[in-house]
From TrEMBL:
<dbReference type="InterPro" id="IPR008271">
    <property type="entry name" value="Ser/Thr_kinase_AS"/>
</dbReference>
<dbReference type="InterPro" id="IPR011009">
    <property type="entry name" value="Kinase-like_dom_sf"/>
</dbReference>
<keyword id="KW-0808">Transferase</keyword>
<dbReference type="InterPro" id="IPR000719">
    <property type="entry name" value="Prot_kinase_dom"/>
</dbReference>
<comment type="similarity">
    <text>Belongs to the protein kinase superfamily. CMGC Ser/Thr protein kinase family. CDC2/CDKX subfamily.</text>
</comment>
<dbReference type="InterPro" id="IPR050108">
    <property type="entry name" value="CDK"/>
</dbReference>
<keyword id="KW-0067">ATP-binding</keyword>
<dbReference type="Pfam" id="PF00069">
    <property type="entry name" value="Pkinase"/>
</dbReference>
<protein>
    <recommendedName>
        <fullName>Protein kinase domain-containing protein</fullName>
    </recommendedName>
</protein>
<dbReference type="InterPro" id="IPR017441">
    <property type="entry name" value="Protein_kinase_ATP_BS"/>
</dbReference>
<feature type="binding site">
    <location>
        <position position="44"/>
    </location>
    <ligand>
        <name>ATP</name>
    </ligand>
</feature>
<keyword id="KW-0418">Kinase</keyword>
<keyword id="KW-0723">Serine/threonine-protein kinase</keyword>
<keyword id="KW-0547">Nucleotide-binding</keyword>
<feature type="domain" description="Protein kinase">
    <location>
        <begin position="14"/>
        <end position="302"/>
    </location>
</feature>
Amino acid sequence: MASPDPPVPHGRSNQAVKAIGSGAYGTVYKANDISQPGKFVALKKIRIPIDENGIPISILREVALVRQLDRFEHPNIVRFLDVCHRSELGSEQHLQLCLVFEFVEMDLAKYIRRYPGGLPSTKVKDIVFQVLCGVDFLHSQRIVHMDLKPPNLLISEAGQVKLADFGLAKVYDFGRRLTDKVVTLRYRSPEVLLNSSYGSAVDVWSVGCIFAELIRMEQLLPGTSERDQLEQILNLLGTPSEEQWPRDSPILPQSFVSRPPMNLEELVPGLDPVGLSLLKKMLIFDQHDRISANDAARHPYFENRPLPAIEFPPSRNLNAISSPNVPAASLGHRPVAQT
């Protein structure tokens, strides 16, 4: 976690209190909402150099996407509240942009560390279901998140999970595949690592890696480079057939030694057979055969899913952020149907 900053005003209604993390393109602060004493918001502060090309398209894209998503008030998407900006003149001109979001107490990475003995199976099931509901909603809006990982998943004291940080998200055109390199390495899908075109299935692969991590309490595929990450994926899944290898990849399958698949049951102990069947469908090498977020959320693994309140265990000196209680939202909705 970044070191706390002194209070710095942003716009007219918020005051930064503490740096709580960093996103794809900026630093995130916990801030007082001056207009509502006792309330907090999250500020994503971005300092943008302005040149002859104007504001980078990635920044404009994020603002447009969060505005679009907030109209639906989906319970598994972080709420976007406001945007403010200030010009900074000097030898170089900069624009300081602040995106204002609802404040959520903790991200999933910190939450996992609070359970050194492992998460209860009911909590894993509930968290994964909520993540899939959020991802399915994004995909129904033709948006691919591109950077799903525990630090980008927020969880409130009431147990509500929200997808955050849309700095790398893009609108998906079914007539034109995406090609930009995205996704944090250890949650990156095979098609992205192989420099192939890709679509919404990249998010499902990332959720599969997160699912396994919630059971294992450590990352499933901790690669140290793109080559090493591919090797770890092939060690897990075995050598794919030529038909499964992306045709537009510049990397040839002959570049890798042939190998059999590993036993996923041994790598993810404690996950019941129904959960393993879902995980296997999410971690399929060929993106065209990978389960969709919509179908994954309807998998039998989630049948009769309990809805326990997720209570925070003792802090264990992790500098957790305290906040007033947040009312629980209804999380029993079904995923948004794809069109």
